[in-house]
Design brief:
Blueprint: E1 2-4, E2 15-16, E3 19-20, E4 46-48, H1 51-61, E5 67-70, H2 81-84, H3 86-96, E6 100-105, H4 114-123, E7 126-131, H5 137-143, H6 150-162, E8 167-170, H7 182-195, E9 199-201, E10 206-208, H8 213-224, H9 228-236, E11 241-243, H10 247-260, H11 267-275, E12 276-279, E13 284-288
Helix pairs in contact: 1-3, 3-4, 6-7, 7-10
Length: 289
């Protein structure tokens, strides 16, 4: 772990990443891809130590309130966050200045900041996005080894439901020959139904692999799933998009269950929802991020 001091923290669309790299160890992580030009080992976390100062400056300059997003490239609740509390300090600023929040994680550490999430949601909108890919707990511990399992994440969603905080499930990626089964999809869907999630984000039943990510993923397949690496190479070669052989049927299962239980599954609609700032005190919907 090492500190870096960027010159800005918010993207043009008001997203931010407080860390670079990750310690969750998910075997399919796209953020390992060489296209992102990370100049340090992936597990050697770069901490944007001046992020709170930069964020406060940015929020003060904004003429209109908006949604602030975090977690797209690096989980805001890495192991280091437990001690550093960088994410918490930024959430305190978002709440203080009256901005909305769309935050994505796989970690139950987010419950530490439940008080802030509730206060943000009382003023405007706080949307928590939780990634759920694998219903089987033992398989989950291999695919996503250093973070809480899907069952625990579903418990987090239930707690957020009870607190009135809207949630969205990222059901991606679904890995060919590993968790691309109807049993897995329905298991994850049942968690979402119980938690009354607002919607489910998916980009097709499958996974994407780029240079850097692909090599790490294949090494993990060879270590944990004998013969599966060969299936990938034979079927997909060096393709970027790797759709599941069961793609059409499993997507049908997903969409039918979403329709039945009134969960939004249109990706564009979900991103518009997360980008729409709401002033609950004034009863208004304002700017998009």
């Amino acid at each position: 772990m090492h500190n870096i001091y960027p010159k800005s923290i918010l993207s043009p669309k008001n997203g931010m990443n407080l860390y670079r790299g990750c310690t969750h160890g998910c075997i399919y992580c796209d953020a390992r891809s060489t296209c992102y030009q990370m100049d340090h080992a992936f597990e050697d976390i770069a901490v944007k130590a001046n992020a709170p100062e930069l964020l406060e400056q940015a929020l003060r300059r904004k003429r209109n309130k908006c949604m602030i997003g975090t977690g797209a490239m690096s989980d805001p609740y890495l192991h280091a966050e437990k001690e550093l509390k960088l994410t918490r300090r930024c959430l305190e600023l978002i709440e203080e200045y009256g901005f909305g929040l769309a935050i994505q994680t796989k970690s139950d550490l987010i419950l530490r900041d439940l008080d802030l999430l509730k206060r943000i949601n009382e003023k405007t909108k706080c949307v928590v996005q939780m990634t759920l890919t694998t219903y089987d707990e033992n398989l989950c511990k291999i695919l996503e080894p250093n973070v809480c399992t899907t069952k625990r994440r579903s418990e987090v969603l239930n707690i957020l439901r009870d607190e009135g905080i809207p949630t969205i499930c990222w059901m991606t990626p679904i890995l060919p020959f590993l968790n691309d089964t109807e049993e897995n999809i329905r298991g994850v869907l049942n968690y979402c139904i119980e938690a009354k999630v607002y919607g489910i984000i998916q980009f097709g039943i499958g996974v994407t692999l780029r240079d850097g990510d692909r090599q790490y993923f294949y090494n993990k397949l060879a270590a944990h799933f004998p013969g599966v690496k060969g299936k990938y190479i034979e079927k997909y070669g060096n393709a970027y998009e790797l759709p599941s052989p069961n793609h059409s049927y499993l997507l049908k299962v997903l969409t039918e269950e979403c329709q039945k239980h009134h969960m939004v599954y249109d990706v564009g609609a979900l991103f518009r929802y997360m980008g729409q700032f709401e002033d609950k005190q004034a009863g208004e919907q304002l700017t998009l991020f």
